[in-house]
Amino acid sequence: MKPHIVATLTEARSALDALLSNPQALAAIDAAGDALVTAYQHGKRVFSCGNGGSMCDAMHFAEELSGRYRNDRRALPAASISDPSHISCVGNDYGYEAIFSRYLEAHAGAGDVLLAISTSGSSKNVLAAVKAAKEMGMVVVALTGRPGSVIGQLADIDVCTPGGQYADRVQELHIKVIHILIESVERALFPQNYA
Question: How many CB atoms lie within 10 A of CB 100?
Fold first, then answer.
């Protein structure tokens, strides 16, 4: 067996153990779940954005809320900012940095929640979305991978999951956090599914 297989899994386990032993990060995950629940209880919506693998995570987050996670329940209003026609239009007319913020201007409002995903915590278009969301009165939950990042500092809640030297470890932790957030929403809004 190639040695990198065990080394990779061991590194991933170490990253998860580090998250488990980080009370600040665990408290942020709890607070983020509460923010989502509060928004839904008040008839608000949830949006998500990110680049590359983080866009895929943003899409996964939204479809698990609007579709189905573990059990049958009503659909929840959630959308990832990932429509190719919107992205190409805004990118062409206003620049790539505006692709997420422009979408929020069109569709979001005060009290809605933005899940802003950036492993570096410094993606310019995610940062622009965070700034726009704050100006609109949205609640911003950042999912980042570097402590003290600019996006994390601007967010209402920064769930920071450092995973090591590379972004893939961070993304592995991000998907775990995303699943916890979805389960937190379901447990609060549909407790009968977890009886």
Answer: 33
179 marked among binding-site residues: yes
8-35 core/surface letters (b: 16 or more CB in 10 A; e: else): eeebbeebbebbeeeeebeebbeebbeb
The Cα–Cα gap between 151 and 94 comes to: 21
pLDDT tens, residue by residue, 128-148:
999 999 999 999 999 999 999
Residue 91 among known ligand-binding residues: no
Please check if 118 is assigned to a binding site.
yes
Question: Do residues 58 and 81 lie in contact, with contact meaning Cβ atoms separated by under 8 Å?
Answer: yes
> Residue 97 has which token pair?
């940095």
pTM: 0.96
Any binding-site annotation on 120? yes
**Is-contact 111 42, C-beta < 8 A?**
yes
82 annotated as ligand-binding: no
